[in-house]
Write a structure and sequence with these properties.
Belongs to the enoyl-CoA hydratase/isomerase family. This protein is α+β, with helices and mostly antiparallel strands. It has five helices and eight strands; from the N terminus they run E-E-E-H-H-H-H-H-E-E-E-E-E. The strands form two sheets. Strands 2, 3, 5, 6, 7 and 8 form a six-stranded antiparallel sheet that branches.
Length: 151
């Protein structure tokens, strides 16, 4: 599905709009290590491939918050708004890490605009976002992502 680009004034009409899915991105050990360095979370299930082979997941896994952070680049693949001065990642209402993402896995995001509300000077959208793991039935992350757009 191509990226949807809309004018600010169109936002209120988008409640319930399925934005489709992104392309897959592969999770690498280098990416996991960089995230571990940035967040000071060096737990062995993420950063020690040899030890992780014998761990509960059989391989190193991505940090849940690393997987969650992919919402931002995935979001840019799916959606944009013209006619605004500022775009803000406003937050999250609900997040669940439902399946571990093993190193080497490929993930993508499916998103639906759940609601659009007016805020002072702009609009806020709530997006139901699901990060899926290629070849697995259950998702890695389910989240309600909030974004704001100001005129």
């Amino acid at each position: 599905m191509p990226r949807l680009v809309v004018d600010f004034d169109t936002l209120p009409t988008l409640t319930g709009k399925d934005l489709g899915t992104t392309d897959y991105r592969q999770i690498t050990q280098e990416q996991i290590n960089l995230f571990a360095d940035a967040t000071d979370d060096q737990q062995w299930i993420h950063t020690d491939p040899e030890r992780a082979k014998d761990g509960p997941f059989g391989a190193p896994i991505a940090h849940g918050f690393l997987t969650l952070s992919l919402i931002i680049p995935f979001w840019g693949e799916l959606f944009d708004v013209d006619g605004v001065t500022t775009k803000v990642n406003y937050g999250l209402d609900r997040v669940r890490f439902t399946s571990p993402v093993k190193v080497g896995s490929k993930v993508r995001m499916q998103a639906t605009i759940a609601e659009v509300t007016e805020v002072k000077g702009g609009a806020q959208i709530k997006v139901y976002a699901t990060i899926e793991i290629e070849g697995q039935e259950g998702p890695a992350v389910v989240a309600e992502f909030l974004a704001r757009f100001y005129k």
